[in-house]
Task: structure prediction
Amino acid sequence: MDIKILGSGCTNCQNLERVTRAALAELGIEATLDKVTDPSEIVSWGVMSTPALVVDEVVVLSGRVPDVATVKHLLTAH
Result:
């Protein structure tokens, strides 16, 4: 699984990374997790509100920090 966190590196972006890592650990899923901070690359994903979560090249969430349960659902539904 390939996961990207899109955002400037702000507190919300850091929180999304933390929640995503916790969800991956609870699910026992191995994944690569990259942080994308370049504004032009973020916009190229069609994201206008950060932070955003990309799973296997699909934007599954943007503009908020979900709880661990929500991220677990997004990861398993994808």
Summary: The chain is about 40% helix and 25% strand. The first strand starts at residue 2 and ends at 6.
